[in-house]
Specification:
- The protein has 141 residues and is mainly alpha-helical.
- The chain has a domain of 95 residues.
- Helix content is 60%, strand content 0%.
- The chain has six helices and no strands.
- The radius of gyration is 19 Å and the shape is globular.
């Protein structure tokens, strides 16, 4: 006989909203990681015809990446204090700083940290998408 344990928490931020952030964060990290495959970041090769066929495709890609980052930054900035704290707490749980049983403590600590720099803080996490995903899974959302 299995009994389902009652959740000791409720999310202000919807799990689907968190999943949207995860998708956007994965898109950002994929764009960044393409530059670093094979350890050849920012290497430039010239084939002798440097003045022929010179295009600025990289600028268009960079602009699109910045748009995605800016969009994610705006979404995070639009969260209320409770939602922002829960998003940070999910990342911390996913990263292993707290476990699911310490959810209330994680949210309380995140609420103390939540401010106008929440987006910068979260976007500075190299594995944000993975940690959010793991955090959702850990709390069963």
């Amino acid at each position: 006989m299995q009994q389902r344990r009652e959740r000791e928490w409720e999310l202000s931020i919807g799990p689907d909203t968190v999943r949207l952030f995860i998708l956007k964060a994965k898109g950002l990290s994929a764009a960044v990681n393409e530059d670093y495959t094979d350890g050849a970041e920012h290497e430039v090769e010239f084939d002798g015809d440097t003045h022929d066929n010179h295009h600025h495709d990289g600028l268009a890609e960079e602009s699109a990446e910045n748009l995605s980052e800016e969009e994610l930054r705006e979404l995070i900035n639009d969260l209320n204090v409770d939602e922002a704290a829960e998003l940070i707490a999910l990342a911390w749980v996913g990263r292993g700083d707290y476990d699911a049983a310490e959810w209330a403590d994680a949210v309380a600590a995140a609420r103390e940290r939540a401010n106008k720099r929440t987006a910068k803080y979260l976007l500075g996490m190299p594995l944000l998408a993975d940690w959010l995903e793991e955090g959702l899974e850990a709390i069963g959302a």
